[in-house]
């Protein structure tokens, strides 16, 4: 067992001496080595453990580390490049995050000089940092009508969202763990740092009732009405639902389900391609209701198995930006500002998007129902979760349905919708489901590329 002694030289300089026993040629020899810096002594002791007490190898490891003291930026980039599980598009995203959010803050700090206070100060700075979209808008360019209709939190909306800050912290934390494993620092300063909750302003959800979704659905272009019903009926992410193929509609004797095992990605040339989902938990099978199941089977009938299930008018991928600008915005505005419909009488008694009956509008214009909220596309996923929670669905089931890495992610995202006893039950259930001897829950280990939502 190695020990470290601090002492002073005759001229008053502080030194650290490491003493240990080393086996050599069948004998046990007492060894010692002196360092000018405590961190080098600590590093040497850790390397002794790694190399089985071999002082020569431990000394070489310390010398190698000192030849290139790493900054936070260098460590984060090295960590990103060392990870081979993520797609190139995801690696590029992480590199950009280092450039945009660390280069001008912690980036140039030596890796061993960062402590928990420095990380907490970085979090505080991120909470007041303005993002580029609002600042980069050309002078005189009008704000989009749907964005303008959001609640009056204009200044807050320019800030990094709590979710983004948590994701950035996760990347920093994973990089620090990587540095610890390689002897570049003694601990991970990201542990125990206070982070903003995802429900805070700037990352707010817009949850729709069944009736509100009906208004949006009926205002949508008919081609995409089934897409909307599938989104709100499954909670799939945009990149997942638009990557579904005909073969992913699966029918059994009991139900219809969607197999989710891929999503749209971007390669190094910024071209879209269909790749695997982000994590193993994202690969899942999601059941659908009877009516939606029949409509999906009809949509898939007679088509090639490898065709995209949902396509645009040209028969190709539905791009998020194009759909938002040409269809989503128009549908939201139409639902918010309905004209007196001539077809109201024809709508009376018609089954609506969620399978309930529409009573019809009686009387004059003042009785025309309208949407008063301004949802984003991703809010259909949140709406699905809210409907499941309201129906009393078990949180572990909801976690798997949404493809969250851990039930803790589900709780963090939707705890404000849940009775407290359900939250506690889910936490206990997750602990019980973990194998004996396992470490922290997956959501607590800042794994590379983990993002909640």
UniProtKB/TrEMBL annotation:
Q: Where is the composition biased (Low complexity)?
A: 345-360
User: Which GO terms label this protein's molecular function in UniProt?
Assistant: DNA binding
Annotated Tyr recombinase domain ranges read 203-428
Q: Where's the Core-binding (CB) domain?
A: 70-180
- Positions of the UniProt region annotated as Disordered: 345-370, 432-453
Keyword Methyltransferase part of the UniProt annotation: no
Enumerate the SUPFAM superfamilies for this protein.
DNA breaking-rejoining enzymes
**Record's signal peptide:** none
Q: Which PROSITE patterns match?
A: CB, TYR_RECOMBINASE
Which key words are in the record?
DNA recombination, DNA-binding
Q: Which InterPro entries match?
A: CB, DNA_brk_join_enz, Integrase-like_cat_sf, Integrase_catalytic, Integrase_recombinase_N, Tyrosine_recombinase_XerCD
Any single biological process term in GO: DNA recombination
Family named by the database record: Belongs to the 'phage' integrase family.
Protein name, entry field? Integrase family protein
